[in-house]
């Protein structure tokens, strides 16, 4: 996924909400249920860097501030609520899943717990109070410290990603997973294995994307320098703010990637006749969360037809007044596809 400074604040929460209704749109091609305003649920997941060892709130405190400044309505979720700042507590944002001292998979460690064998206990389909929309992960520092079978550490991380976001049987199959690289490790001899671990991550994430999992990579390590560390393994306040910067861009880039193209009323990545059908069936409706409300004024009308028509391209689009019958609509779909008229697809990529 592209990471750039251009990824500034965007009205993207609506996009995530409409994503949740995409299946309904595809199935019914009709009026969608009204979207309910709800915060974007973010789970900070990892070890003591996520917990915030020796720094109240860790990177979570500045990230919350930056999310607020970006205009995003978010809620931190997780199985822990320790080590907050007073501001996080006051805002009800104290939750996280940062587990100090943990490795990726504790089943191979003689001394440490890990995420892999424990995460089922707080994350799963039935654990609605915690279920995240986005997971932010940094894990592996303790594997490096222990020299814990590092050759296969990426495999363990890969298994953990799949365990969480596998579309078929993951613990949070609808969540997006943002994998962060590891910040500097100042213990003697540990930066090289940290770098080696980090170097594998982009390719690993790409493999998971190709498998249909919603995963992206954020190179947190490129933001945080050794001067930003408070001890051997943990960031100071400056470093924590930089981690927050990295994850904020990762979140914004993900939200941008799922933003439907103008006129893509059934959220399938294409602007085509199926979207016209969604508009036609909803024409005249009003209220929040309407998929065919292309200009966001909570009314579905000719202006939204124009949004779809203009996105469709230079070719003649079906007239709004034609209002074809369902059978005529199907014929229209077939004829348009046969003619190979313009389609647009939105694809999120890693680079
Ligand atoms: Ca579409
Ligand atoms: Ca409208």
How does this model look, in words?
The protein has 351 residues and is an alpha/beta fold. The protein folds into two domains: 11-36 and 262-351, no CATH class; 39-257, Rossmann fold (3-Layer(aba) Sandwich), CATH 3.40.50.1110. Helices cover 36% and strands 7% of the residues. The protein contains twelve helices and six strands. Strands 1, 2, 3, 4, 5 and 6 form a six-stranded parallel beta sheet that branches. Helix 4 (60-69) crosses helix 9 and helix 7 (153-165) packs parallel to helix 8. The termini are close together. Bound molecules: calcium ion (2 copies). The site of one calcium ion has 8 residues, from helix 10. Residues 264, 266, 268, 270-272, 274-275 line the site of one calcium ion.
